[in-house]
């Protein structure tokens, strides 16, 4: 990883912590997959765009209905638990 890529990732992580009021270091709890039968959704606000079969990193289980996740493009957002499958 180059210095430029590293700084870009650090900036994205700081913006995530500010936007979601997340304290402490970002640790991945597990990985989960978006249900291949789920409808694809565009993201918006604090919601992450969903693509069928996509593998997401779980950052935090926020409540009974949503999970805070990160996708492969290092974008963060909430995802409904109903569309997530354990690997």
TrEMBL record:
InterPro entries: FYB1/2-like, hSH3, SH3-like_dom_sf. Gene3D superfamilies: SH3 Domains. GO terms for biological process: integrin-mediated signaling pathway; protein localization to plasma membrane; T cell receptor signaling pathway. GO terms for cellular component: plasma membrane. Keywords: Phosphoprotein. PANTHER family: PML-RARA-REGULATED ADAPTER MOLECULE 1, SH2 CONTAINING ADAPTOR PRAM-1 RELATED. SUPFAM superfamilies: SH3-domain. It holds the Pfam family hSH3. Residues 16-85 form the Helically-extended SH3 domain. This is PML-RARA-regulated adapter molecule 1.
């Amino acid at each position: 990883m180059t210095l430029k890529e590293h700084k870009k990732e650090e900036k994205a992580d700081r913006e995530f912590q500010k936007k979601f009021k997340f304290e402490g270091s970002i640790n991945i709890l597990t990985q989960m997959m978006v249900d291949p039968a789920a409808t694809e959704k565009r993201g918006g606000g604090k919601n992450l765009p969903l693509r069928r079969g996509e593998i997401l990193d779980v950052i935090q289980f926020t409540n009974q209905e949503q999970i805070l996740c990160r996708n492969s493009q290092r974008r963060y957002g909430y995802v409904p638990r109903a569309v997530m499958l354990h690997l």
